[in-house]
Amino acid sequence: MIGEQQVIQSVRVTNTNDFKIVDRFDGVPYEFEPGKGLAIPLDAAYHIFGWSHGATDEQVFAHTQRRFGWNTPAMIDANRDRRFFSKLKIEPVVYRMVEVKPDDQPELTEQTNVDVLPPPKKVYRNKAAEAIDEAIARDG
Predict the structure, then answer these.
(1) Stronger pLDDT, 93 or 20, i.e. the higher one
(2) Count of domains for the chain
(3) CB-hemisphere CA count at 13 Å for 59?
(4) 68 plus 91 within the same structural domain
């Protein structure tokens, strides 16, 4: 549709396992509580789960399996790796940016603009700013 654009800015991860998954990205901790969804930035989704737009489920599974240690022979033999992964729901959060057409905009009047603008604030100057102003005035 012309004038409309969809943007993916985050990913929602819902953990339906019976245990919490904890990880970090860029110094930020992420806790995926059982039964709760959590929206995380795209770069965190890529780092933690290997998720990117266009990645296959197998690619995301392989990354997640390695990241959380679900790729051990015991886990694979018991099929726990697939079971744990199948209880993760990873979906993009899509935002729609829509152009506001001139017909959709409210009519602005001079009075409307006055009501929208906040009253002017008093400017307070600190001693360092005053000293700089004095030096410039003195030295030219």
Answers:
(1) 20
(2) 2
(3) 10
(4) yes
What type of residue sits at position 75? M
What pLDDT shows up at residue 110?
52
- The structure tokens listed for 64 are 């997640």
Q: Is 105 within 8 Å of 35 (Cβ atoms)?
A: no
Contact (CB, 8 A) for 90 and 50? no
Work out the number of other CB atoms within 10 angstroms of the CB of residue 43: 11
**pLDDT computed for residue 1 by the predictor:** 45
Give yes or no: residues 92 and 132 share one domain.
no
Distances (CA, A) of 63 to 79, 81, 82, 132: 16, 12, 12, 56
The pLDDT of residue 72 is above 90: yes
- How many Cα atoms within 13 Å fall on the side-chain side of residue 26? 8
Residue 42's domain comprises 4-98
Both tokens of residue 117?
């603008």
DSSP letter for 19, please: S
pTM value surpassing 0.90: no
Domain identity same for 92 and 119 = no
Give the CA angle between residues 10, 13, 19 to the nearest 5°: 150
44, 28 in Cβ contact below 8 A?
yes
